[in-house]
Amino acid sequence: MAEQPTNKVRKQAATSRGKAKRSKSADGSLEARLAAAEAERDRLRIELDTALERIAMLERANSDVSDRIAWVIDSLQNLTKS
User: Which residues, 6+ apart, have CB-to-CB distance to 13 below 8 Å?
Assistant: First the structure.
């Protein structure tokens, strides 16, 4: 005759089923976390590109202003010498 499974065997089987369920839900959770991380990475990449463009524009504007100030100073010095 076949022996009935003991409580220890039943608990081990239940634990194995529980682990399988948890790993499936953990995989879903990992996929969700990965998708969220990728979305955040993409958002940050766009933000970085925008900031770099803004920095370049401000540096050009700063250079233009510096050139104009230098031109005004030269013009004023030429006026005082004349």
Answer: 5
**Residue spans per domain, the chain:** 10-82
Question: In the numeric block, which tokens belong to residue 6?
Answer: 């003991």
Q: Please tell me whether residue 4 adopts helix, strand or coil conformation.
A: coil
At 18-71, the pLDDT tens digits run 665 666 667 789 999 999 999 999 999 999 999 999 999 999 999 999 999 999
Q: Which positions ≥6 away from 5 have C-beta within 8 Å? A: 13
Biggest distance spanned by C-alpha atoms of the chain:
123
Q: What is the 3-state secondary structure (H, E, C) of 16-71?
A: HHHHHHHHHHHHHHHHHHHHHHHHHHHHHHHHHHHHHHHHHHHHHHHHHHHHHHHH
